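From the shared-data thread, chain only:
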Amino acid sequence: MKLFYTGPVINTEMLVAMLEKHSIVATQVFVDTDAPDDGDLNRLAKVLVAEEDYPRAHHLFYTEREDEL
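Structure, as tokens:
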């Protein structure tokens, strides 16, 4: 698994759902694994994707969208 994104849980949960809609398996893990899960949506988390899916995921979310101009 390769790190794809780090940010607040509110963003990582949405990103995982969006990746899965494109058939890319993603995993969310908390940055501080020792802290209790108290429902804080600002808690930092990481999104990990498989090495083989990383280029496609990167293209979907980070490549500039030329067709939107």
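The radius of gyration is 13 Å.
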